[in-house]
Amino acid sequence: MLFRSLSARLVIAALLTTLLFGSGFASTATLKYNHDRARLLGYMIKESLPRNHYSHKEVADELSEAAFELYLKNLDSQKRFLLKPDLVVLNPYRQKIDDELKSGDIRFPLVTTEIIRDRIEATSKIVEDLLARYFDFTRKESIETDPDKLDFAATEAELKDRWRKILKYQVINRYLELEEEEKANVDNEESEVEARTETERKKEAREKIAKSYRDLFSRLLKNTEQDYFNSYIDAVSRAYDPHTNYMPPKDKEDFDIHMRGSLEGIGATLREEDGYIKVIRVIPGSAAARQGELESEDFILKVAQGADEPVDIVDMRLRDAVSLIRGKKGTEVRLTIKKPDARIVVIPIVRDVVQIEETFVKGTVLEKNNLKFGYIKIPSFYRDFTKGHGEKGRNVTDDVRAELDKFKQKKIDGLIIDLRNDGGGALTDAVKIAGFFIKEGPVVQVRDSAGDISTHADESGTTIYDGPMAVMVNQFSASSSEILAGVLQDYNRAVIIGGAHTHGKGTVQAILELDRRLPFRNMSQYKPLGALKVTIQKFYRVSGESTQYRGIIPDIILPDRLSHLKTGEQYSDYSLPWDTVKPVVYEKWGVSSPSIEKKLLELSQKRVAANEEFQRIMKNAARAKERSDKTERPLNIAAIRQQRNEINSMADDEEDSPVAPHGTGDDPEAWRESAAKDVYIGETQAILEDIITFPTDGLAKNTPRQSN
Fold first, then answer.
1. What is the fold, at CATH topology level, of the domain defined by 360-707?
2. What is the pLDDT of residues 406-440, one digit of tens each?
């Protein structure tokens, strides 16, 4: 999770496991396009989505426009192929997708297939021609790297010049990488890297970029009519919300394998997004999580096997990228990663299996100023549903209870629950764990697409821990973790500490097996049809506020080095909005005191202002934001070299910064030491110490007494 320089220091060893799949183009090599099958699938999508989706959004012009934009973005996200005249041909379909689905006459994906294939073939010749020549590395010009700030090229000449800049930028950077490799190995007697002349480096850089693009164009031209049709149906689905999507038969098969827990890969949930392979989540217990460099919101640009030349995976189908990333245990894969602040980082990974223990709850006691603080890290709300015959599988509820029992014996003064990077899991466990800290009462409301609301409550009538509490969150805390943090905040039971907001994922999805929903029995010849993942419910806090979109706003907000990231539901296309329902009756824990809350905030802000680590985090976050906002890059070698040096300097500044505790295998003491060094945990302890020393019942041991 620490920044690294772009020289030898950015080469970071890691172990990765378990690859999960997301949306995007999927290989359908064994399934050819069939007009009647497409017509049937279009009909089923048109019927199923409005009926089953939470919003009941109609298949009409508004949906058509959204689907058109999503499909076009998936087709040419970087605006590197299509021309404005092509859009003149495609734009009439902007408000016709709904009509196509209703009539069964689906033409749009077929039209785009023909156009995009022609453009890819033409572009491949442009790239081949440009890379046959030398670029002027000293010419002062610039390139815009954010496609959202670009329009489609009007002419082939304009497109060719755009590609000239793209290739020049990549060749210069590849040249500098070769230069840095030589410098890093100049003192290494065992190094096999030979010194090259400037001309040789330029030639090698062009040749490597040329090979990468030959492979890219070859892959893109393998996309079939069925692939583009699948993308079309997926775009219609995602126009409902970002968690609703179409899974073609092969993707559905992979989803089932993941749910059975029998799929191995690199230790991250990946998704195709705007032509990139994006890291959505690093799996707890994977070597990626233990090592800490690969993070959510990273984009994987290239994949290399050991010392082989990297393969560019931009615009690659997800399944093809997966086949490159996965491999035998003990072999090395090198990932070229683009960070959200535009840094390019190379991470060499020795493939290994997941350490199961790292996926489970961990706890320890941390001492500060003669006070004992119980610390519990909850990586996810896991529950083993595979056990049968009355046998109880392992679950997060029992593991948290076990840690609390240990803390009771050690007589802790305060408790910290760490939900950072917890993507959620089983709702039942969020409800049960909340019950450990309140006497009884409602925990969360769930509203379905019919408007009916059910309430999940703790009915135990007892608490396991009734002392001062703090809950740590960040923008990657989602779903069940937001439910737990939200209810403890509503009950005035714990102080919530973290970044500006949590993820805001307050919805529930269901899988609709399309093969089981055929309108007539005599249509089985069109199987397999795949499945729909559809949003069907929404979560609401006991206060009536939804956790969707806005997430949970912490009581005390701390500096966040990733604050420049636009992460969460509020930044996703077509996400469901925040709203409210009627609050339920519940008893708050103690008396809320605005003056005490203000004092807690002031004391925390004072400590943060005096803390060198927090000040370093704030400075580097500001620099990262400035860099990510400046999407126009220089196109001469001197300026690019200077830019790379500045990034190295920023990396050095953060190299020793304490961060969240990582997995350390089977060494509990090493993990405890890691937690003790975490600057955020340290400030959370200080906040709890303030609560303990304040003459107040709020957030401390007391009897519930305020009703809402």
1. 2-enoyl-CoA Hydratase; Chain A, domain 1 (3.90.226)
2. 999 999 999 999 999 999 999 999 999 999 999 99
